[in-house]
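Sharing a chain and its predicted structure for anyone who wants a worked example. Both blocks are below, sequence first, tokens second.
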Amino acid sequence: MINRWLMILIILLMTISVIAQDTTCPTLQLDALATLNDFCAEQESDTLCYGNPTVSMTVFEEADDALRFALSGDRIPLSAIDWFSTSTEANTWGTTRAYLQAYSVNSLEAQPATMVLFGNVVLFNQGTEGITLETQTIEVTSTQGANIRQAPSTEATVLEPVLRGTNLKASGLSSDEFWVRVHTERDGYGWVSISAISGDYADLPVVSADDEPDNLVLPLQAFNFQSGISDATCAGVPPSGILLQTPEDSESTEFYINGVAIQLQGTAFIQAQSEAGMLVHVTDGVAEVIAIDSAQTIDAGYVSRIFLETDDEGFVYPIEAPTIPLVYDYQSLISLPIDLLQDSTRVSLDIYTLITPRPIGGESPIAGMALDAPCKFTVGQSGANIRSQPDPNAPIVAVMGYRESANPIGRIIGVDGLPWWKLAENIWIRIDTTVTGGDCTSVPTITTE
């Protein structure tokens, strides 16, 4: 208890004082990310890899006490971790990454996921499988299949029939050793006769029909955490938090974060603090956020807040439903270390915060403009890429469509030797893909970027 409260206090203090630690910004942060990228390049699944100081952790009592971080690149099994933290104390920038698995929304099919933590974060592992709930995989081998029953008795109600060859997760053995308790989904379970199955179930704990098992969630699929929020020390440095990624081309994966269910297909940046609440930014893909019996769908480029309260153990939980998603601050998120994730991704931009849609009638938006009108440009039928830097190899953050228009705030000669329009910080479009109207000669020239 003391350690938990102490780590949360450190996180909150770091958030307040971090502005004073600006002497090497942003080199310190960039070096920390490079260290994680280099030393954790060959990271295995179901591990947490130590990137850069300062990272602290404790393991469960049952785990090998020798499991400790010592050098960059050290790995710890996720099932051994009780809690861990990253911080910016002593002029460092803590970074760490987890390669994990999490069950999909509608089944016990495990999906790969990546979690990157940086800055000031403290996290408590609330996974169950392999931690508080031991399981074994069994197979239905009876030619007639098997019935999953409500209790360990042939007189009990049949919950579900299963076919031969079906694999099930078992977590308990009846006192007469004739039945095994199996999980039909993360929050559902029943009993199957051992006469219909095969597998290594003999060492499972003996449980009674009245013993309700924990929900089946893998290590780090459920966790409680707090972080810094508005603690970026300079331009080019992201605020503290957690990047979480699941495959976009598979079924949604469900996480339980601070008591909130987050069903994710893609990438999210998540921050939480007892006073400010939890912020779920969806940078790519889509997420469904469920709290207090209410759900919000968050599309890429948007953020929702869930207000929190603190319990007696120092954990935070929701007290209100998720807010209606709003456009997030793209400029504050463009520097997120998305290169450390397993799948290529981007920090999405809601283009219509900067771009005017094509006129309803389809006419050119620059037709008939006065020569002294503020500069406006549009693009042709092929559209045009909007990039994060005036560089044809920079990440594409959005695509401008036919006859959509915008007003540039600056221009520069890019790394390719060609001129580029600037729409906002880290928002650029090459001038030769546009057609202009109005007074574009007065758009200021930028000499360095």
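Comments welcome. The first strand starts at residue 47 and ends at 52.
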